[in-house]
Amino acid sequence: MIKVITCKDYEEVSDKAAEIMLEVVKSNPQCTLGLATGSSPIGLYKRMIKDHQENGTSYSEVKTYNLDEYVGLPITHPESYYSFMHRNLFDHIDVKEENVHIPSSQGDDLQANCDAYNAALAQAQIDIQVLGIGSDGHIGFNEPGTPFDSVTHITYLKESTIKDNARFFDDDINKVPTQAITMGISNVMAAKKVILLATGTNKAKAVAEAIQGEQNVENAATALQDHPDVYFILDEAAASLLKPQGVEIVNTEKFDSVIANGSVIVDFYADWCGPCKMIAPMLDELAKAYENVRFVKVNVDHDPDVAARFEVTSIPNLCCFKDGQLVNRAVGYQTKDGLIRLIESTM
Ligand code: F6R
């Protein structure tokens, strides 16, 4: 299931992305990063640079693989992804140039370049893949229609992508390259962990389809529904077309015996947090059902100790406390349409 983190704005999206990224880098100084270009990860890269400068986090043993590169621009062009990555990240951290990999679109045999990149990826294991998303749902430059089993290939950019990217080329669509080399969807899916960053209403439709739509090749990001560890980090605008989530409390009897009067605190833990949206209506329901009970929302993403203490999983957990002791806990699950169903109490 795609885990959603909804943030206030671009800065908070960048903070959250940096938190996840730096945890990977700090816990494994020899890790391999999958990196993206575009506007979405710039704030993340700024935070990585700041952390490197202030805390000394080293990238000297880190390897990086970029998603894509335009065809038709020399690497020295300021808008080549080679230039972008050096300007926005590599020139400011201690990554070794020999550990940096960006698909090459130079030379006459682009298919050979794709094959070489695939061979390199086959030897690597990307620990964390950073993604943006196109307004047409592309990840990398896997445009609508790209098969989910695709590997690094040459692609034509869709008109919408060319228009979206014209802002980097003096707003002139004629200056935007029409072709690119991109990692395929199966290369992306091979990463251990994926974080997709999206902000702005322009992304809202593609994001909603990717998370709540049927999987289909017309929106490459729907492939991520099958990834075991993927976070979408969204600002409110990008999350705005996600369908409202409902709550159905299926079995509360066991809680009734515990929640007798005002001395109980119920904490709601969830380690997928898009549910800010989902948790709020749930707490409303509970507040209606149980007067005099204080309901406290705790997000385990920000409280890993609590998560570890109660072995919280990606399933919603309702924990009831009395006099500081955990006295009851319910587990639930999220249905396909986003409804949270609370089921048996486990104590
Ligand atoms: C960039 C890439 C693209 C972008 C996407 C969103 O390497 O592969 O998929 O992530 O086009 O771009 P921004 O972030 O500029 O909105």
In round numbers, the mean pLDDT is 82
Determine the N-to-C terminus distance. 27 Å
Distinct helical segment count: 10
Report the β-strand fraction as a percent range: 15-25%
Q: Your description of this structure?
A:
This protein has 2 domains: 2-235, 3-Layer(aba) Sandwich (Rossmann fold), CATH 3.40.50; 246-344, Glutaredoxin (3-Layer(aba) Sandwich), CATH 3.40.30. Helix 1 crosses helix 2 (42-55). It is of the alpha/beta class and 347 residues long. Strand 9 (193-198), helix 7 (204-212) and strand 10 form a beta-alpha-beta unit. The strands form 3 sheets. The chain has a 7-stranded parallel β-sheet, covered by helices on one side. It contains 10 helices and 16 strands. Bound molecules: fructose -6-phosphate (F6R). Fructose -6-phosphate is lined by residues 36-40, 67-68, 132-134, 138-141.
Per-chain topology:
Layout: E1 3-7, H1 10-27, E2 32-35, H2 42-55, E3 63-66, E4 68-71, H3 81-88, E5 100-101, H4 110-123, E6 128-131, E7 153-156, H5 159-165, E8 179-182, H6 185-189, E9 193-198, H7 204-212, E10 230-235, E11 247-249, H8 253-258, E12 264-270, H9 276-289, E13 294-299, H10 304-309, E14 317-322, E15 325-334, E16 340-345
Parallel strand pairs: 1-10, 2-3, 2-6, 3-5, 6-9, 9-10, 11-16, 12-13
Antiparallel strand pairs: 4-8, 7-8, 12-14, 14-15, 15-16
Helix pairs in contact: 1-2
Fructose -6-phosphate is lined by residues 36-40, 67-68, 132-134, 138-141.
